[in-house]
Write a structure and sequence with these properties.
By secondary structure, the chain is α/β, with parallel strands linked by helices. It folds into three domains: 9-81, no CATH class; 83-327, Metallo-beta-lactamase, Chain A; 333-475, Rossmann fold. It contains 16 helices and 23 strands. It has helices spanning 9-22, 33-44, 64-82, 138-149, 164-167, 170-176, 186-195, 257-260, 270-282, 286-296, 316-327, 346-360, 376-385, 402-413, 433-441, 465-475; strands spanning 86-87, 92-94, 97-99, 104-105, 109-110, 115-117, 120-123, 127-130, 156-159, 181-185, 205-208, 213-215, 220-225, 235-239, 244-246, 303-305, 333-341, 366-370, 386-396, 399-400, 420-426, 448-449, 454-456. Strands 1-2-7-8-9-10-11 form a seven-stranded mixed beta sheet. Strands 17, 18, 19, 20, 21, 22 and 23 form a seven-stranded mixed beta sheet that branches. A five-stranded mixed beta sheet has the order 12-13-14-15-16. The protein is elongated and about 80 Å long.
């Protein structure tokens, strides 16, 4: 190495990675990869790092004090880009955090745009924290809480929902603030000990029943039970002062606020990720959602503050109407989804021919989803969205090809109902896919399976066209 040589920010990052690998005490830099480039460029624009001669081999070319400052700035920047503290009103502060590192929400749903864990602080005569966050982002959430509190001490921790992505920090808060009371539903009090090994936790709880009021001063939170939306202990609260409905997971959506906007008015397509969230997480519980909507219909709601996604602050009727549609399992849009599970392409070819026939006959919004290669949660969401569905699958092990079997199984779990369905099967020697699909679909409520069921033998041939055309006519 040449003494005094100045290296650019890109090389600087490379050296930082080497140092990180040999010392896990330098803030675990891999956790902050999202912030690394931004901070490095910011620091390097002010100060160039010079490598002393002969020090490369020992990895001691960094001045420890300077690097510690650099790493601390990087860590703080990382916290700041995930922690979105925002003043909503004079005395209500958003203290939630974005999670941009998560790959699978609930360890099963892809969230390429992240997720938000929403939490609020009400600074009134009494101070109330409304929900916490996932432990994954506990440090950022605690930082927000501390800044928002200032010199004040919290009196209450309101727990609307005990799922760990909203409640993981409860024990820490109880330890840090010995006088704080947990305000939650009766069912939650019974469940708290399942999550936290604190013998006295129930004695620090204020149990809320239907219609009970938590008086903070100006702000008065009225509680309503919302069992099975989507856990049994869930309660929502309505602030009678500012008209805010704290709706737990209802009206939630996938996506970080830093990606989609803090308010629904800033989100160009709220429904896309909200639908995917609802259908896959809440969708099975349409009846309980309808019960909650009935309670909400008599409240003078001005905004909806869910535990995931933006604050709904405009045109509430539009969002409530969507929730009403989804919870009654009604089709939201006209269209025909063709879901395909093809092994070597023969079944896909038949599906493409059916699409061509449907469009030639005037059908609108016909589209194909390859179940083997596309996100299953999006496929399930779109199956609920549209009024008609075609299932095209290969036979496999004297049954049904696995991706289609899994897809229909999820539709069963989510209480898919009230749709018109067409079937295409493929089998080279003993077609069995249609039999299994029929058996599974017969367990659904109010579905119509149109005739004919089209059977393809290995590859589609011209002799198969008439059956495909009859199926197209039956779907129109």
């Amino acid at each position: 190495m040449i003494a005094g040589k100045t290296y650019n920010a890109k090389l600087q990052l490379f050296y930082a990675n080497i140092v990180e690998k040999i010392s896990d005490r330098l803030f675990l830099l891999y956790r902050y990869y999202l912030a690394l480039t931004t901070v490095a460029l910011r620091v390097s624009s002010r100060t160039r790092i010079t490598l002393p001669k002969g020090q490369f081999e020992s990895y001691s070319f960094f001045n420890l004090e300077g690097f510690t400052i650099f790493a601390a700035q990087m860590r703080n920047f990382y916290i700041n880009i995930n922690a979105i503290m925002k003043k909503i009103t004079d005395d209500v502060i958003y203290i939630g955090v974005d999670d941009l590192d998560i790959d699978l929400f609930e360890s099963q749903y892809k969230v390429p745009q992240g997720i938000s864990y929403n939490s609020y602080l009400i600074l009134d005569e009494k101070v109330a924290i409304l929900d916490t966050a996932d432990a994954r982002k506990g440090e950022e959430w605690e930082e927000n809480l501390s800044k928002a509190l200032g010199e004040r001490q919290p009196d209450f921790l309101v727990v609307h929902h005990l799922e760990p992505d909203h409640s993981s920090m409860i024990a820490k808060i109880l330890e840090k603030y010995p006088k704080i009371q947990v305000v939650t539903g009766v069912r939650s009090v019974k469940m708290l000990s399942q999550f936290f090994e604190m013998p006295d936790i129930a004695t620090r709880c204020m149990e809320m029943k239907e219609g009970d009021l938590l008086d903070l001063g100006k702000h008065k939170l009225r509680f309503y039970a919302a069992p099975m939306v989507h856990w049994p202990e869930v309660m929502v609260s309505f602030d009678e002062f500012d008209g805010a409905l704290y709706s737990a997971d209802a009206f939630g959506k996938f996506g970080a606020l830093s990606k989609f906007g803090f308010y629904s008015s800033e989100d160009s397509d709220w429904s896309e990720e909200a639908r995917r969230y609802y259908i896959n997480i809440v969708g099975k519980y349409g009846g309980p959602v309808q019960a909650l909507l009935k309670k909400a219909s008599v409240l003078p709601i001005k905004s909806i503050r869910s535990l995931h996604g933006p604050i709904i602050n405009e045109n509430l009727e539009k969002y409530i109407k969507l929730y009403d549609t989804w919870s009654r399992c009604l089709p939201e849009s006209k269209g025909i989804m063709i879901a395909v599970a093809s092994i070597y392409g023969g079944t896909m070819e038949a599906a493409e021919k059916l699409k061509e026939l449907l469009e030639s006959k005037g059908a609108e919004n016909v589209f194909i989803r390859d179940l083997c290669r596309t996100d299953v949660s999006r496929n399930v969401s779109d199956a609920f969205r549209y009024e008609k569905l075609v299932l095209a699958a290969s036979s496999y092990d004297n049954g049904l090809f696995t991706p289609m079997h899994s897809f229909i199984h999820i539709l069963q779990m989510k209480c898919f109902m009230g749709r018109t369905i067409g079937l295409i099967e493929n089998g080279s020697w003993a077609p069995s896919a249609a039999r299994v699909m029929n058996e599974m679909l017969c367990q659904l409520t109010n579905v119509t399976i149109v005739e004919p069921t089209v059977t393809i033998r290995s590859r589609m041939k011209s002799t198969d066209y008439p059956a495909l055309e009859r199926l197209a006519d039956a779907l129109l």
